[in-house]
Description:
- The structure is a single chain.
- The longest helix is centred in the middle third of the chain and has 39 residues, at about 85-125.
- The radius of gyration is 20 Å and the shape is elongated.
- Strands 1-2 form a two-stranded antiparallel sheet.
- The chain has about 230 residues and is an all-alpha fold.
- The protein is built from 7 helices and 2 strands, in the order αββαααααα.
- The two termini are about 15 Å apart.
Amino acid sequence: MKNKQRILVGLMRGMLGCALLMFSDWLMGACGKDNVSNGVVQSNWAKAAGWRYEAAILICCVAVFFMFSGLKEMIRLMKLSRSKRDAWGVRGAKVFELGCTAAMVSELFLHMKGCILPILYGKLYASSLMEADMYSIVDTVNFHLAVPHYVLLIIMIVFTSVPFVYQVFQGRLRIPRWFMLLNPLVFWIVGWLLRLLKVYLITDFTACMVSFGFLMMMWAFMQHVQRSPEPNRE
Length: 234
């Protein structure tokens, strides 16, 4: 494989970006002990420190630049691994590129949306509004942001995970088949299942699952690159 070292460096930068996004996700999504959900509103939003959400947005702004390096290399590796005789592999590479592009475009929007709601609720909680009115205002803001939020989230998760699983299953990436599990979709589903345990430490960590899935997928691509033969210089 040509430019092997450069590709590995790009993937490592992407993994650093994903790790920063995990921390940003935790700052944004962790609600702590004795939290009660009321629709989209979390009861502990009222006592959450405002700096957490400001820090989450700032960290995300930095993280996306690092994540871009890893996503760019993954797109290139998916295109190199596809077989032109396999129509599904060719289509999958295009879908994967679309999913990675959605991830690059949407991460900052998703984090800002995730931070705006608790900031808004905290300000309303400090006012003299009735509780029902506070819930109504937050739900209304969430309603107007929900469609692009979930459309972008589904595209970035599903459009990257499914082609990756297909390529690994077909043996076009030099990694074991159990690496199919190392993708954002699997970690997203696992996160939803873990929330059923109702243990706040685990529930707080599930806020990081999508970013963790991208980090593990980049690590899987790193294993593919490391196992690829060096180019013949003769």
